[in-house]
Design brief:
Helices cover 85% and strands 0% of the residues. It is mostly helical. Helix 1 runs antiparallel to helix 2 (26-73) and helix 2 (26-73) packs antiparallel against helix 3 (79-99). The two termini are 42 Å apart.
């Protein structure tokens, strides 16, 4: 379980404990607390699940990309195989971007320099290989 899921569960448990410890009936607890919080919890559960799927897909695409680059560097594939591999990778990236939830601007801005440095270092390592 990731941190976001654990946080969601803890928050729901706190609400349930506070609701049950108060002097309210079970009917009032469910109608005023549980039924009002359920849609919020379900929405965040959906967002968390989608983000986890996005992370898994990005890792899969990264592995495919690195394998393709390493094969090109080591000259173990032909030009036709390079074209086919890059086309398949580009199609997979497009498909992922079309269906994935967009990254919030604040998150992109906070991690942009780190990701650019990582990409630059990776390209430099590919260029400097013998």
């Amino acid at each position: 379980m990731d941190l976001a899921t654990k946080t969601l569960i803890v928050l729901l448990l706190i609400v349930i404990v506070l609701g049950l410890s108060g002097d309210i009936s079970l009917r009032i607890f469910f109608t005023n607390i549980v039924l009002l919080i359920a849609p919020i919890g379900l929405y965040f559960w959906k967002v968390i699940t989608e983000q986890n799927n996005t992370i898994t897909e990005i890792q899969r695409l990264r592995v495919i990309s690195e394998r393709l680059v390493n094969n090109v560097i080591s000259n173990t594939i032909t030009d036709d195989q390079i074209l086919v591999g890059t086309r398949q990778l580009q199609t997979a990236i497009y498909s992922h971007r079309k269906t994935a939830r967009p990254t919030p601007d604040w998150l992109h801005k906070s991690t942009r320099f780190e990701k650019e440095s990582e990409s630059s270092a990776r390209i430099d390592s590919y260029i400097n290989q013998p």
